[in-house]
Amino acid sequence: MRQLLTTPKYLTLTGWLVTLALALGLLLAACADTSTATPAAPAVASPAATTATGTTPTAATTPATTPGPTATGSATAGTAITGTATSGATAGSQTVAPSPTPFTVPLDNNGIPVISALQGNTKPFTQDWRTGLDTTGPVQVAGESDGMVFVKTQDGGLYALDTKSGTVAWKVPAPPLAGTAPLFPPLAVVGPGVVALGDLAAEKITGYDTRTGQKKWDFDLRFNAPGRDTGSRFIGGKIYGNTLAVVVSSKQNPFDQQHQTTNPEYLSLTGIDLTSGKTVWSALTDPPTVNGFGVRLGGVIFGSKNLYVESPDLSVGAIEGATGNRLWLILNALVLHNDNPDVLYTVVPEAGSEHQPILRKTDPQTGKVLWEKQLPVNVIDDPLMAVSPDEKTVYVEVLSSSDTYLYGIDLDKNEGLWNFKTTTFKDYDLTATNEGVRLRTFGSQAGFAMFPRDKPIPAMWILGPEQFGDVISEPEGLYLTATDPHVPGVLYLVNPSQGYVLYTAKTEAISGVPLPGETQVYLAATDNAGKPYIYAFARPKT
């Protein structure tokens, strides 16, 4: 059984990005500046909060019931870094490289946008089938189980397709539209024997038999809380044994600031028995208090055993997914989202003040602080940050009055390695590997850049008109979707260590992330008329 996950998997891109740099980025290396540089004093501003990899999330949630032990610890300042940098960041021997210049993406002989210098021997994916659906608008592949692949529609419908033939085995029509169209796609969670589909308008979730589509149960997700908004928004869900954990927020659209109320946000967490549809456990977060630490948007990290609940009141708690047991609660903490949901790094929020951030590693079962370091870099607010899996390096974004910088810090020595001016990249997120850090940029300058751990000369991979979707890492390589002015949709499989583009396929405009199943890779796309299609490509063997 394969399911679309909300937390991306661990990725390494060093080898093939460096290879591309030799072909397309020689100018960067030639222009490298090895002088020491000091950024201007930071302005009172911080990057936009996001839940992307290697960033500080916008919210956390804590159960309203009696918490477990409170994890505490005193911060120990790391060794200060010597050098010329003062306000903005403290670092010793640093190297500053020039920001890259965007370039136009060329096409290969098959009309596929070139994303690597090693794209000469690319093979086409073997298409097993392509099925059009009798609906309109974008759809997303939700999961694979029991010989079926499941597709959810934006308006709340569900399709089950036979994985061998692509034939539609059964479908659940979208519920009648009540009011305006939904802003977010429905929650769909796939498990052995059951696929659960959420209905925000009715504030319920329904379990269907995976093979027949027969309804097995309905579960009412409505909940009462003092001064809560009407309506709900799905945060996510995951299956733990025979328990489906579902989380909803009382804020339907927290991103619409114009129509926000002053009511507090609540998160309702529920464990549902997959067989009977009965309640196994439930919890409700406490609202922020007037004299509390602060307010943020709530969220949940779904680990392999536990739910890590990020509360709007800046506390973080852990709940066992199968039983609902409350494990621990810590106060005043921000979780750094990373590729491994069972590795928890937190920072102490310091919004609006210049400070050296305190980075902590927290035990996921006990909430105890395993280690903590005060990083030798001056920041304002809570910056983007990513820790390498081997915990030897942390990468921190620093804002100045007019520019943005990325700092690499040696965690063993707790001193700076380098800094790089990232203003050209504009909006981006970070993913750290043991070899370096990857920047993924968004907007008109979308692309990727990989910085080796030991020097800030980026190995550039696309920076220009190409628009990238989410990336999925599997043993056979890195699955990546993209579009550009020439091709509506492209699926790539790339060798992440050497940089070879192994397989490619053209599609209509891609509307979701690729889902690698047992033997196939599934992808949803939509044509110019709004008709959705589901593709199944043979999954290359390792």
Verbal overview:
Strand 5 and strand 6 form a beta hairpin. By secondary structure, this protein is an all-beta fold. It contains 2 helices and 41 strands. Mean pLDDT is 79; it is low at 4-103. Helices cover 3% and strands 40% of the residues. The strands form 10 sheets. The chain has a 5-stranded antiparallel β-sheet with strand order 1-4-5-6-7, with no helix packed on it. Strands 2-37-36-35-34 form a 5-stranded mixed β-sheet, with no helix packed on it. The protein starts with a strand and ends with a strand.
Output the number of helix runs.
Answer: 2
> What does the overall shape look like?
globular
Structural class: mainly beta
| Percent in helix | under 10%
Unreliably modeled segments: 4-103
Average pLDDT reading:
79
Rg, please? 24 Å
Question: What is the number of strand segments?
Answer: 41
Strand content: 35-45%
